[in-house]
UniProtKB/TrEMBL annotation, chain A:
Gene Ontology cellular component annotations, sorted alphabetically: mediator complex
Superkingdom in the source lineage: Eukaryota
Swiss-Prot/TrEMBL keywords: Activator, Nucleus, Transcription, Transcription regulation
Subcellular location as annotated: Nucleus
Protein family according to the UniProt entry: Belongs to the Mediator complex subunit 10 family.
Entries under InterPro entries matching the protein: Mediator_Med10
Gene Ontology MF term list: transcription coregulator activity
Record has Transcription as a keyword: yes
Stated role: Component of the Mediator complex, a coactivator involved in the regulated transcription of nearly all RNA polymerase II-dependent genes. Mediator functions as a bridge to convey information from gene-specific regulatory proteins to the basal RNA polymerase II transcription machinery. Mediator is recruited to promoters by direct interactions with regulatory proteins and serves as a scaffold for the assembly of a functional preinitiation complex with RNA polymerase II and the general transcription factors.
Keyword Transcription among record annotations: yes
The protein's assembly and partners: Component of the Mediator complex.
GO biological process, one term: regulation of transcription by RNA polymerase II
Name this polypeptide is given: Mediator of RNA polymerase II transcription subunit 10
TrEMBL record, chain B:
SUBUNIT field: Component of the Mediator complex.
Record protein name field: Mediator of RNA polymerase II transcription subunit 19
UniProt gene name: med19a
GO CC terms: mediator complex
Native source organism of the sequence: Carassius auratus (Goldfish)
A GO BP annotation: positive regulation of transcription by RNA polymerase II
Disordered: annotated span: 1-37, 170-243
TM regions (residue ranges): none
UniProt xrefs under InterPro entries: Mediator_Med19_met
Molecular-function GO term, any one: transcription coregulator activity
Family under the similarity heading: Belongs to the Mediator complex subunit 19 family.
Major location category of this protein: nucleus
Pfam family name, one: Med19
Amino acid sequence: MAEKFDNLEEHLEKFVENIRQLGIIVSDFQPSSQTGLNQKLNFMISGLQDIEKCRQQLHDINVPLEVFEYIDQGRNPQLYTKECLERALAKNEQVKGKIDTLTKFKSLLISELGKVFPEEMAKYKAIHGEDPPS
Amino acid sequence: MTEIFSTLFGQNDAQPSAGPAGLGFAAGKPPPPMPSNQAPVAAQIPGQLGDEGPTLRKPGAMNEPFYLLRELPVGNELTGNTNLITHYNLEHAFNKFCGKKVKEKLSNFLPELPGMIDCPGVQDGSSLRSLIEKPPVCGNSFSPLTGALLTGFRLHTGPLPEQYRLMHIQPPKKKSKQKRNPRPLDPLPPETPSDSDPKKKKKKRDDDPDRKKKKKDKKKKKNRHSPDHPGLTGSQPNSNSLR
């Protein structure tokens, strides 16, 4: 899987480098540069052909749209990954806290109900069985 | 007391009750109102019938004196009780992204990319969002430019107009401070921890007797050759300057 990304990355780097050189030629154009310019233009087209060939290998790759917001703002997209992981951890801890609290509440409630309604709780436990260990 | 008990278990129902008739309640007592923000039960009770509400045990059969007592939902092995980052083997990724400081700018992620990439894409119309909202025309094949087509790319000689010159200007790259290589000086004794202080180093250089002698010799030579030199006995105003 990493190979197809490496392949695409290589083609993109070559393409960008070609465009950069094209920009340098154009920034101060001389008549002798015409041949080089034509060559760079055709390299650009062949570069686009190569990138399009890479598309077929990557049709199953999904990119979250939120990453585009980061890129459009000129921010590092790794910050998105970082924030996702941090949010996941925070939510995980939050839910774990809720589970722990509700488990304690359940055991406390059952014990208190057992004191007030011993017969009914015995019947309840007979129907539902003993509580699984939390 | 029994009414409070049944009300308590009645509130455990995640799905709203359809109505008294559908649920088989005894006449005269409507079911308690259900809050609308309750999440649905993870495991569906078998035999559920559309909008009529959950299937209930026959009242007065197995679960007496309990009404509306359902089976407990099937427990999910994976809950928030588990550390999901460990479960999905994301510890390495977590340490990589959250352990170290991730740099803010896009140019730190793509250092080789030319141009001003840290500016917002909206400013120059190069945003990815605009690419999604207005996708370009696709489907045409790429064919190389022929001679006739290349005639359209004959440019005027000379530099670009000023309005287009900024496009290939790159932000100044911060060069990492390279450590200065030590100059080839006289062979110094190996440094001890106390010698690492630059002031002490400078002192050592000054205290070196050989250096003192050399300095004196240089001063004497200079004084001899200077035009204002009164003689060997005269003292010069520059005699104290360090060479």
